[in-house]
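User:
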Amino acid sequence: MYNFSMNKPSGRGVWSDIGLFYCAAIWGSTFIVTKGALDFVDPAVMVGIRFFISAALLLPWVLKRKNRTAHMREGFYLSIFLAALYLTQTTGLLYTTASNSGFITGLFIIFIPVFMYLFRREKPTALQGLSALLAIGGMWLLTGGAGGFNLGDALTLVAAAAYSAHLIFTDKYVKAEADTVLLAFHQFWMVSAIAFIMALFKGASLAVAGVNAWGVIIFLAVFPTLTAFFIQMLAQRHSEPFKVGIIFTLEPVFAALFAWTWGGEEFVAVKAAGGLLIVSGMLIGELAKFNLRRAVKKEVLPV
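Assistant: Predicted structure:
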C-alpha cells in the first residue's frame, strides 16, 4: 500500500524522480550500443561478462556484510527472470532493429495485469484492456504485421514478459526491506553463471573481438546494470508505482531516438506511429492503476 500525497515533493522525492529518468534514458541507450557490439561477441557471452563485472564491482561492499549469503534465495528467483530478459533481448537484437527492440521491450507494462490475474486472480480493468489493444496494434505497425514479425521480435517479446515478472518480484523484496547490495550481488553473479553455462552448452566462443566491444560491455556493466538497477530499487522506496511506471514508459522512446540518430537507423513514419501507439498503451495501462478520486481525497492507493 502506498500513501499518495498532494503536497510538494520532498528533496528525496525529487532525486528519486531524477534517478528514474536516468534509468529510462540509460536503458534506452543500451539497444543501439549492444546491437553494434554483437558482431564481435556471442550474446550469451556478452551477458555473462557484463553481469560478472557488475557483481565484481559490488564485491567490496558485500565483504563488509556479516551475513553475505542473505537473500540468496530471492536473488536466485530474480536471476531466472533477469537472465531470461537479457539473454532473449540480446539475442533478439541479432535479428531485429534497436528501435523495434526498445518498443517491444516496453510492452512489459502490458504483461503486469496478465501476471496479476494469473497469480492473484485480479481481473484487468477496461482501461487495461484498451491498453493491451493499443499496444498490440502498435506492435503490428512496428513490425510490419504477422509477415514482418521475425525471430528477433519474438525473442524480445519473451524479454518483455521476463522484465515484467522481474519488476513484480523485485518490488516485493525491496518493500520487505531487503539488503539491496546483497540482493543485487546475488542475482548478478547468478545471471552471469547462467549465461556462461548457456554459452558453453551451445559451444560459443568466449572471446571478445576488439577493444570497442570490451568498451561496450564495461559500459553496460557499470551504467545500465550496476547503477541503474540500484537507483531503481532505491527510488521505488520513495515513489508511488504510478509515477515509476509513467517515467519508465520513456525507455522505448529513448531507444528509438538513439537508434534513429546515433545509430543511423532509417526513420519510418509507420513504425514511429506504431511506437506511439505502444507508448500510449503503456500510459493508459498505468493510468488504469491510478484511482483519481482516492488520490484527491489523499487516501491510500492500492498497488
